[in-house]
Amino acid sequence: DACEFAAAPAKGRPPELDILYAESLVARDDKAKAAELLEGVLRKEPKNTVAWVALARAGGSQQAQDQQQEG
Fold first, then answer.
1. How far is 18 from 25, CA to CA, in rounded Å?
2. H-type helices in 1-71, by residue range?
3. Is the distance from CB of 37 to CB of 8 less than 8 angstroms?
C-alpha cells in the first residue's frame, strides 16, 4: 500500500496524522498495528487524550491484552 506508514511515529510528523492513520487501521480491522502506532505517540506525548481514546477504540495495547488473557 502506497500510504503505509512506519509502525512508529516518524520524527517531525505531527501526532494528529499518526492518530488519524491509526483510526484508519482500526476501520480496516488492523487493530494491533493501530495500537502499536498509538503507543508510539503516547510514548512521546503521554498526556495526549485523543491518542488515549483512539488506543481504547483499537482495543488497548497488546501488552494489556496479553495480561488480560493470562488472568
1. 10
2. 15-27, 31-44, 49-57, 62-70
3. yes
Under a CB-based contact definition with an 8 Å cutoff, are residues 33 and 59 in contact?
no
C-alpha cell at 26: 482500526
Q: What Å distances lie between residue 48 and 21, 36, 45, CA to CA?
A: 16, 15, 6
**pLDDT tens track for 10-57:** 677 899 999 999 999 999 999 999 999 999 999 999 999 999 999 999
The CA angle 11-28-6, to the nearest 5 degrees, is 20
Q: In sequence order, what are the residues at sequence separation of 6 or more whose Cβ sits closer than 8 angstroms to the Cβ of residue 41?
A: 9, 15, 18, 19, 22, 48, 51
> How many Å separate Cα 27 from the centre of its chain?
12
